[in-house]
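Worked example 3 (structure in, sequence out).
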């Protein structure tokens, strides 16, 4: 296991644990919501640092993430058949998030709002999530890949 990948994963998990993300959902906090936010953070992370990470390392990082998610699903108590089914759903959802971020002009507020409406099935607090997206995107721009690989950092944005 590569400690750089583990540090990236743990940093993105720490971002995903932001309580405000779930308070503004105005619904019960569920594992699938947490996983969607992790995928959201990871997709933006990959988009921002894709020029700094070669394809082989990107694939290794993606594989590491998938293994960690699979382990989490198993810890919840799902059986082998259920894990495979859930993993297929989650990987497809990740690709949908990544694709939407790649092909959409996310500098336009309405596009950001539509992204959260579609991916997260949100109707309320869209402005909060659009603002969060902008802050997170700016935060990634102001940091280097190296910051995320060294250690777990205190994220303030």
């Amino acid at each position: 296991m590569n400690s750089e990948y583990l540090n990236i994963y743990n940093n993105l998990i720490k971002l995903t644990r932001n309580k405000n993300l779930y308070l503004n959902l105005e619904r019960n906090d569920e594992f699938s919501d947490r996983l969607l936010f992790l995928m959201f953070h990871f997709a933006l992370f990959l988009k921002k640092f894709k020029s700094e990470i070669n394809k082989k390392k990107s694939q290794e990082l993606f594989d590491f993430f998938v293994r960690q998610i699979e382990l989490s699903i198993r810890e919840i108590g799902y059986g082998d058949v259920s894990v495979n089914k859930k993993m297929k759903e989650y990987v497809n959802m990740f690709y949908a998030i990544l694709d939407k971020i790649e092909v959409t002009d996310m500098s336009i507020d309405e596009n950001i709002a539509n992204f959260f409406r579609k991916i997260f099935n949100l109707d309320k607090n869209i402005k909060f999530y659009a603002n969060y997206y902008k802050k997170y995107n700016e935060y990634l721009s102001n940091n280097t890949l190296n910051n995320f690989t060294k250690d777990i950092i205190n994220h303030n944005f």
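Notes: Helices lie at 3-16, 19-23, 31-49, 55-76, 80-103, 109-119, 126-141, 145-150. Residues 3-150 form one domain.
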